[in-house]
Specification:
This protein has a domain at 1-109 and 285-315. α3 (118-134) packs antiparallel against α5 (171-190) and α5 (171-190) packs antiparallel against α8. It is of the alpha+beta class. It has a twelve-stranded mixed β-sheet with strand order 7-8-9-10-11-1-2-3-4-5-6-12. The chain has helices at 21-30, 100-106, 118-134, 138-141, 171-190, 196-199, 203-214, 216-227, 302-310; strands at residues 2-13, 34-42, 47-56, 62-71, 75-78, 95-98, 142-145, 160-165, 233-244, 250-263, 268-279, 299-301.
Length: 315
């Protein structure tokens, strides 16, 4: 699997003096920045390895490469070399060993990577997605795109590409459908008994959320916000393409988003353009792991890391 998110444009149009130097520096770093996550996953025995790469651009260009490994009972994160944080050479490049169960208990959460039922996760995702998209009219929001015209990577073999599009002309209706029709049904799905152990959400909170969502006061406030949406949002482009292979698996998705978020009270506009993609391959095949499970001297525990940081007073 591989995911990529790229910031094509991030600018703020504001009155002179409204933006400070820090904001300008952050915008400069994020302009054309990209983050990618590539990895391999198998369910039985549970093992996942991911490599996250973050590329920041601008005057302070830098790149971070962070490999991670998860098993049924452990998680390993490789300690990167960070230019503005001089870490001891004794720990850079080693894998920090974490205990997900221990971290979950500290946070009052009972779900860890090893206890997640991947089949239930798939069932939940499919049910939520089909419920969300099922509320939208096919002729208004969906269309088939010829695979040859969809700009797919060469290694993606698709029999069909479906495009979901939101425009300035239908965004108000799309949001109304989402809030009034789709979200209450999604909450009903999350409340199902079969997902209780997976999600560990208090049923009373889900009931309360649905009641608040459907209350007259909330509806009136939402209707007013939608009516005034033109003053706060302009959609230049919002398209989500999904490529389906011969086995009916969604093997590739790409998002094209170009919007202007407006703040008329401050006379400020944020221009944001993103492209993103998810790609899956070798589904239900035997997986090959490149990193493997870290062992021996390649591993450092949290206690050892804390000891190393304790000796950094000279840095």
């Amino acid at each position: 699997m591989k995911s990529i998110l790229t910031v094509n444009n991030l600018t703020i149009d504001a009155p002179a003096g409204a933006s400070d130097d820090t904001t300008g520096m952050v915008l400069n770093m994020l302009q054309n920045a990209d983050i990618s996550i590539s990895g391999v996953h198998q369910s039985d025995p549970m093992q996942t390895e991911l490599t996250m790469v973050l590329n920041l651009k601008g005057d302070m260009a830098m790149s971070f490469n962070i490999p991670m490994v998860m098993t049924s009972d452990k998680m390993y994160v490789k300690i990167p070399s960070i230019p503005f944080l001089p870490l001891p050479e004794t720990i850079v490049g080693k894998f920090l060993e974490l205990d997900p169960q221990e971290l979950a208990e500290q946070q009052g959460v009972g779900v860890t990577p090893g206890t997640v039922d991947t089949k239930k996760v798939q069932d939940l995702s499919n049910e939520v997605l089909s419920t969300l998209l099922g509320e939208y009219d096919e002729e208004t929001y969906f269309k088939d795109v010829k695979p040859a015209d969809a700009g797919l990577p060469e290694d993606v073999d698709a029999k069909q590409v479906v495009q979901f599009e939101v425009t300035n002309g239908n965004v108000k209706e799309a949001l109304t459908i989402l809030v009034n029709n789709a979200l209450p049904k999604v909450i009903d799905i999350l409340s199902k008994e079969e997902y209780k152990d997976l999600l560990q959400i208090d049923p009373a909170k889900l009931t309360e959320a649905k009641q608040e969502l459907q209350s007259g006061e909330a509806r009136a406030e939402f209707d007013k916000s939608v009516a005034d949406l033109d003053s706060y949002l302009t959609i230049n482009n919002f398209k989500l393409n999904t490529a389906i292979n011969k086995d009916d698996f969604p093997v590739y998705q790409n998002l094209l988003m170009d919007v202007i978020i407006k703040n008329p009270e401050q006379g400020q506009n944020v221009n944001l353009s993103l492209t993103g993609s998810n790609q899956y391959s070798k589904i239900n095949e035997k997986q090959t792991f490149v990193i493997g499970v870290p062992q021996g001297e390649d591993v450092i525990t949290m206690e050892e890391l804390q000891q190393q940081f304790g000796g950094m007073s000279t840095y």
